[in-house]
Write a structure and sequence with these properties.
The N terminus and C terminus are likely disordered. With about 575 residues, the protein is α/β, with parallel strands linked by helices. The protein contains 18 helices and 21 strands. It is about 30% helix and about 20% strand. It is globular and about 70 Å long. The longest helix is centred in the middle third of the chain and has 18 residues. Helix 3 packs parallel to helix 4, helix 4 crosses helix 7 and helix 7 runs parallel beside helix 8. Strands 1, 2, 3, 4, 5, 16, 17, 18 and 19 form a nine-stranded mixed β-sheet that branches. It has an eight-stranded parallel β-sheet with strand order 6-9-10-11-12-13-14-15. A two-stranded antiparallel sheet has the order 7-8. It binds (2S)-3-(carbamoylamino)-2-methylpropanoic acid (URQ) and zinc ion (ZN) (2 copies). The site of one zinc ion has 4 residues, from loops. The site of one zinc ion has 3 residues, from loops.
Amino acid sequence: MTTTSHVKKVPIHLQSAQNRLLIKNGRIVNEDGIAEGDIYIEEGVIKQLGRNLIIPGGTRVIDARGKLIMPGGIDPHTHFEMEFMGSVTADDFYQGTKAAIAGGTTTIIDFVMPRSDETLLEAYMRYREKADPKVCCDYALHVCVTSWGERQKNEIKELTAKHGINSYKLFMAYNFALRDSEIYQLMDTCKSIGALTMVHAENGDVITENTKKLLAKGVTGPHGHELSRNEEVEAEAVNRACVIAKQVESPLYVVHVMSQSAAQALNQFKINNSELKIIGETLAAALGTDGSHYYHADWYHAARHILSPPLRPNKETPNILMHYLAEDKLHLTGSDNCTFTAEQKAAGKNDFSKIPNGVNGVEDRLYVVWEKGVVNGIMDPSRFVAITSTNAAKLFNLYPQKGCIAVGSDADIIVWDPNQTKTISAKTHHHAIDFNIFEGLVCHGAPEYVIVNGRVCVDEGELKAVQGYGRFLPTLPFAPYVYGTDDDIAAVEKKRLHSYENELTLDHLNINNGNGPNAQEEVIYNMPTLPNSSVSTPIGKAPRQEGQRNLQSSSFSISSEDPDADDRRSCIRVKNPPGGKSSGGFW
Ligand code: URQ
Ligand code: ZN
Ligand code: ZN
C-alpha cells in the first residue's frame, strides 16, 4: 500500500467543467483577517484570488454575496468504526465523513486503535484498508499507543519515517493506560522523531477505586460515571502529563479538555513554563451541552451523553471553555465523534462503567462553535477559523495545504450563510445513530456550499458526498508550528502571504491607502464587528496585538444587501514585519 499517493480516485466522468469553479463576492475569512475577493478553483486547488479574474469558459460560478468564505473545518479527533469497550462505533468512515461534510468539515484525523493482539503497524494497515475506499473527504491518522516496550518504540519510528504518521496518543486511563515511566519514554521517543505526543488525561487508578466504591454503594446509573472521574481527577492528570513533558522537554497535546479545572491546570502550567509547547483541545460536546444530562430520568438519554472525560454538571463550563478558546488558552476544537447506538449503550444498564464511552459531534462541531462562540459574541469569525481549522492544520503539518484560503491550497472551502437558521436534530443529521446530544439547539449560521478538493459536496444545502473521493494525507514530522523556530514559522507564513498579496491587492482589500501604507508592512483588513463581545481576537499572536478591536457595542452585519454595511465595518491593522508576517506567540 502506498502512503504518498495523492492521486484522486475519482472516475473520469465526474471530472468535467465542474472542477472549475469561481466563488464570487464573498468575504474571505482566514485566521488572520477578512478580505473581499473572488476565488478561482481548478483541479481541486485554489488557483487565483482577487477581483476581475480572467477565467476559462464553462466555469461554474457561485455567488457568495452576503456570505463568509472560510477554510473547511478540520476535525482532529474522530473515532470511526473503532472497536472499543466490546462494541464498534456506529459511524464508519463513509457515514462519518459524510456527516462531517454535511456540517462543513472537509478533513478529519482519526485514531488508529490497535487490537490487543495486533502490532501498531498491523493496526495502521487495517485502518488504511477500511478507510481508503470509504472516506468522502481527506483524512489523516494518529496512532494510539496502548502498551509500551522496545517493539512499540521501533514501530512508531517506522510509522513516522515511512507511513505518514506524526502524532501518537497515549492514555492515562482505561485498562490500556501507560505508567508514568512509559509516558516519559514515549514522549522522549516522539520528540526524537519529531512527532507530537497526545494525551488522554485522567487518573486511571483513582477512577478504578472510585468506581468500585460507587458500585458497592449501589450507584450504578450514568451519573456515577461523572462522580467516578470528576474535574479534579482530570486536572491532576493534565498537570502530571505537563510535568512529564517538561522533564522530557517535549511538546504535548492534551486531547478533550472537558472541565474548567483541567483548562486551568493546563493554562497555569503554560504560564509557568512558557518555553514549553502545551496545546489544549476541547470538544464540541463540552461547548454545546453539559453534564446535567447524566441526571436525566430516562436512562438511555443519560447514557447517550457518556464520554470520557465526562461532561461537567457545572452549567457554566461551556461558556468558560469558549472564553479559554477565544483567549488562546485553549487552541482548537475536535468532536471526539465516537457514536454508539442505544443497544450498544445498554451494555452498561446495571453498571455505568460498562457503558461504551462516546458521543456524536463531527457534523455539528462548526454549528455549535459558531453559535456559542461567534453569535454569542465571544470570538470573531477569524478566531472561529483558527480553532476549527487552521490550528489543526498547523499542528499536524498540513498547513498551508489545508486550513487556509490561499493560492496553492487545497480547495476545501465552506460558503457560510450567517443568516440561515438551523435546529440540530437526530431526525435530520447524517449519523448512524438516532440520538443527538445537541438536539434542539437552534443555530444561526450554516454552510450553504461545502467544497471538498474542488468538488461541490454540499450544494445550496443539499449533501452530495462521494464515497472514496477522499485521500489519505501523510503527515510529516517536525511540524514547524510544533518543533520549528520562529524563523521556520515565519518562512511558512511568508510563503502563504506571498501568494495572497500577489493576488489580492490593497485595492481588492478595500484599503484606504491614501497615505500609502506599504503593503509589506501594513495591511488593513475589513472586519465585521460583533454584538456584545466581551473578548476580542486572538491573544498571543503578535500580528494581532495592534488594532485589537473593542468589540463591545458594535453590530455584526455582513449582509451585502445593505450598501452602507461597508461603512459600519471596523478595520483591523495587521503589521507585517519586512520579509513577511511574524508568527509571534505560540504559533
Ligand atoms: O478516549 C477517547 O477519546 C475514546 C477512545 C473514547 N471516547 C470518549 O469517551 N472520549
Ligand atoms: Zn481519549
Ligand atoms: Zn477520542
